[in-house]
Design goal:
The chain has about 210 residues and is an alpha+beta fold. The protein is built from 8 helices and 5 strands; from the N terminus they run αααααααββαβββ.
């Protein structure tokens, strides 16, 4: 999707509706700076307010994502293209998040080991050792919690039995046995327990197509 084109389209429709950036922002419960970023092509409207934005501007979501008014005969084709593009963007974002998870996990481990080594190798009062180790442990735990949250929301887990791909509840994932990103969990569709692998796309890729 062309963010610059979408931004210009939003600005054009806003002016046609005789709204200022501040007025549009107020209707959406956001700041005028956020509207300005859209119109300059620096960001896209969040999905949570996209429908309301389209209602205000009197356009369809598909027209918003295309950055132009669409004639009805072309509408179905454009919808399919936009859906595919959105799925691709989500997959790219999920890959980036999973890479970030690795970085956070490694840094948390290094921090915990580093604080333990410092406390053990450098001469200092016992209370200082305890504080250093406790701080390193606390920060690393926070990092691990964030890393697990990223693993939960980025991509999907695939049931080995029925092939269903889904985003598990954080609690279910947290307490599941695992090695790497493969976790032993109960599928919400078939109800069977299995070792489920992390996958990026919602639907399996058909190699025959």
């Amino acid at each position: 999707m062309d963010q610059i084109k979408i931004g210009k389209f939003i600005a054009e429709r806003r002016r046609e509706r005789k709204l200022t950036q501040a007025q549009l922002g107020e209707l959406l419960s956001i700041t005028d700076r956020a509207v300005s970023k859209w119109e300059r092509g620096l960001s896209l409207p969040d999905s949570s307010i996209m429908v309301k934005l389209c209602e205000i501007l009197e356009i369809t979501v598909n027209e918003l994502l295309c950055g132009e008014k669409i004639e009805m005969p072309e509408n179905e084709k454009m919808i399919n293209e936009n859906i595919i593009e959105l799925l691709k963007q989500k997959e790219r974002a999920d890959r980036s998040l999973l890479f970030l998870e690795i970085i956070i996990g490694v840094m948390s481990t290094i921090l915990l080991l580093g604080s333990t080594l410092i406390a053990g190798l450098i001469q200092m009062p016992d209370w200082q050792r305890i504080v250093i180790i406790a701080c390193g442990f606390a920060v690393s735990i926070v990092g691990i919690v964030f890393a697990l949250r990223i693993e939960q929301i980025a991509g999907y887990y695939e049931c080995k039995h029925c092939g269903h791909r889904y985003v598990p509840a954080y609690k279910n994932m947290l307490f599941a046995m695992h090695f790497g990103r493969t976790r032993f969990m109960k599928c919400p569709k078939c109800g069977k327990m299995s070792w489920q692998k992390k996958v990026i796309s919602k639907e399996p890729i058909n190699a025959d197509k």
